[in-house]
Amino acid sequence: SQLNIDYFKRLDRVIDYLDQKGIVSHLMIYVWNKRVNWPDANSIDDNRYFDYVAKRYQAFPNLVWDISKEALGYGHTDVDYISDRIQRLRELDRFQRLITVHDYSYCARFTDKVDFISVQLWRSELHSVMRQVREKIPGKPILNIEHGGYAA
Predict the structure, then answer these.
(1) Residues 83, 115: contact at Cβ < 8 Å?
(2) Quick one: pLDDT at residue 70?
(3) What is the reported pTM?
(4) Do 72 and 82 touch, CB atoms closer than 8 A?
(5) Comparing 141 with 127, which gets the higher pLDDT?
(6) Helix, strand, coil shares of the chain as percentages rounded to 5?
(7) 117-121 and 99-102 as β-strands: parallel, antiparallel, unpaired?
(8) Residue 110 · residue 117 · CB < 8 Å
(9) Alpha helices in the chain (DSSP H)
(10) In degrees rounded to 5, what are phi and psi of residue 95?
(11) Could you read off the pLDDT of 46-78 as tens digits, one per residue?
């Protein structure tokens, strides 16, 4: 029920440093698979956290929003919740930063809700799969935001 302001002050410095180096920050508002004790979806505490992050970080010029890593995994939320969060963020963000969701199945089903398609590909045939996605979803930017190349 209480936000860790020192954490956010440090994150401010990190995002600002990235901006100074010409690097875009891909900010995942939620990360369901990291054992965080998240408040119940749509609760007062959940909305407080979400609104705080949106209001605090929207003015950074080097920011891309991502509603959640593993958005539909881990049983924390559903499609309606993610769609509602996107709408809430669009209403809060006065700078209209780009929005995506770290869940290809969501992005592919709801292309009108996201600004670009996020793909998480853990196979070696990255080029051919990305071409298939481009053919399936023409006219929408596509970004492979996670690859298993770093996994052993």
Answers:
(1) no
(2) 81
(3) 0.91
(4) yes
(5) 141
(6) 40, 20, 40
(7) unpaired
(8) no
(9) 5-20, 44-57, 79-92, 104-109, 126-136
(10) -100, 0
(11) 999 999 999 999 999 999 999 998 888 777 789
pLDDT of residue 32 exceeding 90: no
Q: What is the pLDDT of residue 54?
A: 98
* CA separation for the pair 68, 29 (Å, rounded): 6
Strands 25-31 and 63-69: parallel
pLDDT confidence of residue 63: 97
| 108 secondary structure, DSSP code | H
**Contact present, 4 and 48 (Cβ < 8 Å):** no
| Rounded distance between C-alpha atoms, residue 70 and residue 91, angstroms | 23
DSSP label at residue 60:
-
Contact call for residues 46 and 88 (beta carbons, < 8 A): no
Helix H or strand E encompassing 147: strand 142-147
